Amino acid sequence: MDDIDRAQGINEQLQADALEAHSRRRTVGESLTECEDCEEEIPAARRKAVPGCTRCIDCQRKFEWIQGRR
Question: Which of 26, 31, 38, 69 makes an SS bond possible with 47, Cβ 3.0 to 4.6 Å?
Fold first, then answer.
């Protein structure tokens, strides 16, 4: 096994760990019908695709961007 194979193995493990962590953080339950930040309606397609969502797509992006900056 050379350095590239080891690096690829590490990368695959990091990706698997990140996906697992993401799935554990995902909120499950009933979605809100209105965004908790801007109070606009959350589209039905988003509520179906992301069970337990509490923000519209735009506010969720802003929220995640702010969280990533900390």
Answer: 31
**35, 56 Cβ separation under 8 angstroms:** yes
The number of folded domains in the chain is 1
Summarised one tens digit per residue, pLDDT across range 18-51 is 887 766 665 568 899 999 999 999 999 999 999 9
Beta bridge partners of 34: 41
* Residue 46 near residue 33 (C-beta atoms within 8 A): no
Q: What is the chain's mean pLDDT, rounded?
A: 89
- Judged by DSSP in three states, 38 sits in coil
Residue showing tokens 């990368």: 11
